[in-house]
Design goal:
Blueprint: H1 11-18, E1 24-27, H2 37-45, E2 51-54, E3 57-58, H3 60-67, E4 71-76, E5 78-79, H4 89-96, E6 101-104, H5 107-119, E7 123-126, H6 142-147, E8 157-160, E9 171-176, E10 182-190, E11 196-197, H7 205-211, E12 214-222, H8 225-229, E13 244-247, H9 265-275, H10 278-288, H11 295-302, H12 304-309
Parallel strand pairs: 1-2, 1-10, 2-4, 3-5, 4-6, 10-12, 12-13
Antiparallel strand pairs: 7-9, 8-9, 10-11
Pfam families: CoA_trans
GO molecular function: glutaconate CoA-transferase activity
Protein name: Glutaconate CoA-transferase subunit A
Length: 325
């Protein structure tokens, strides 16, 4: 093992190098928790388009990418921004206006699809969705599937249980593996080699990372290797899976990062209000995304007082005083 591996690079360089027009990407986190927001905003600033996006259940990152016109195809279980927008507004509008192609799965199906990709198997069986119209309602046509070698020919397949009625099921649903070109996640701690430690819920991040050809990690804290080696049982992602490490404090803002800061309810409400109106949304993008050169300038625009207001309580891991309505 080479202990001198150094995968640290600026976020703008990592995005430019690994995220291309037409790339199949996945982003980590769940609704308004631990979205890789600094990377999302960088993708938007670099005007990378025609992305095929996979997510387990996402929210803020998903809605920003779709609102900026970066996504052409989406596979996901759910997209919501908490109380600010129980269903992501730009996501819903894009689907209703046929601006993106969209295919839906259950949360469990998406977890299994990433796990299949991580395991290196073509599919995994489940009973999830059996008997529902999720099996028969496709977002991608057969002709489009056949024309794109990165997309499986069928959304899902119901197959015979190879063990008869073992387990009480004669039929199972086969969910196809996902292997993104690049997965982007935000974690609390990483070292230069790419070993990562996630505090709190991991969602499907670990499976997304292991299923992907390239992985960009943004982190709150860039630590020395001995720090993570002291308690290796607390590290979920081995360095072998990671391609680039980018140190971006508050890189999940305005979503929450357990132990560091909560989601910013005020910011998300302003975002949701702007997302309902085209002119207001353009003004929002011009001010907070295109009007700054990077995430650091974005945070300066948000303001130190706002960041201090959502600081996590050391005991609970989230802000105990923030008004969430």
């Amino acid at each position: 093992m080479n202990n001198d591996l150094n995968k640290i690079m600026p976020l703008a360089q990592a995005v430019a190098r690994f995220v291309k027009t037409g790339s199949h990407i996945s982003i980590g986190g769940f609704t308004l928790n631990r979205n890789p927001m600094a990377a999302v905003y960088e993708i938007i600033r670099q005007k990378i388009k025609e992305l095929h996006l996979y997510a387990h259940s996402n929210g803020t990152g998903l809605d920003e990418l779709i609102g900026a016109g970066c996504v052409s195809r989406l596979e996901i279980a759910y997209g919501g921004n908490g109380k600010a927008a129980p269903t992501c507004i730009r996501f819903a509008r894009a689907v209703q206006n046929n601006e993106i192609l969209f295919e839906d799965y259950s949360n469990y199906m998406m977890s299994l699809r990433f796990m299949a990709g991580a395991m290196g198997v073509p599919f995994l069986p489940t009973l999830s969705g059996l008997g529902s119209d999720m099996l028969t309602t496709w977002g991608f046509s057969e002709s489009m599937r056949r024309s794109d070698p990165k997309i499986v020919d069928s959304k899902l397949a119901v197959v015979d249980n190879p063990f008869g009625n073992w387990g009480g099921a004669k039929k199972v649903v086969a969910v196809p593996a996902i292997n993104p070109d690049v997965t982007i996640i935000h974690v609390q701690k990483a070292d230069a080699m790419g070993t990562c430690r996630i505090q709190g819920l991991t969602f499907a991040d670990v499976e997304q990372v292991k299923a992907s050809r390239h992985v960009i990690v943004t982190c709150e804290q860039l630590v020395e290797k001995p720090v993570l080696r002291e308690h290796p049982d607390m590290n979920q992602i081995p360095f072998i899976h990671v391609t680039a490490v980018c140190h971006v404090p508050f890189g999940g803002y305005p979503t929450a990062v357990y132990g560091h800061y909560d989601y910013d309810a005020q910011y998300l409400k302003r975002f949701a209000k702007a997302a309902r109106d085209e002119a207001a949304f353009k003004a929002y993008q011009d001010r907070f995304i295109f009007g700054v050169k990077d995430h650091e300038q974005f945070l300066e625009k948000v303001g130190k007082d706002r960041l201090a207001a959502i600081a996590a309580d050391p005991k609970t891991g989230y802000s105990v005083n923030m008004k969430r309505d």
